[in-house]
Design a protein that fits this description.
five-stranded mixed beta sheet, 124 residues, alpha+beta
């Protein structure tokens, strides 16, 4: 693993994530400066060391030497997916709201605790 140090933190528009892969290889390279993605890539590398290889880590030495500012990892290409959001009609959205309200009501009903004659609580 290569460690790269730089003098200043990246600004929001510079904190991008780039995923590269080719038809020739079954691995993809993910380079990210997005803080949430950095954390998830580190956790993934710890959890699956046989599948995830940390290639590079970027540190901002000017502000906090321990602050990880970017990471480059190799992951299996089959893990890369693009998932478009589902188009939902207004009627479906309203039905979903009603179902969620009903589920919340039912879960509150289930939590009502009553006392039995021998003072033992039970859930109805």
């Amino acid at each position: 693993m290569k460690v790269i140090e730089h003098k200043a933190r990246y600004i929001a528009e510079e904190r991008e994530t780039v995923i590269r892969y080719s038809d020739d290889d079954d691995m993809a390279v993910v380079e990210t400066f997005n803080r949430a993605k950095i954390s998830s890539m580190e956790k993934l590398a710890e959890a699956k060391p046989d599948d995830v290889e940390v290639i590079r880590k970027y540190y901002c030495t000017a502000e906090e030497p321990e602050l990880l500012d970017g990471i480059t990892v190799k992951i299996p290409k089959k893990w890369v997916h693009v998932r478009p959001t589902k188009a939902v009609t207004e009627a479906q959205r309203e039905a979903s709201k009603r179902n969620m309200a009903k589920m919340r009501f039912n879960s509150q009903e289930a939590v009502n605790i009553t006392e039995t004659s021998d003072s033992v609580a039970k859930v109805i």
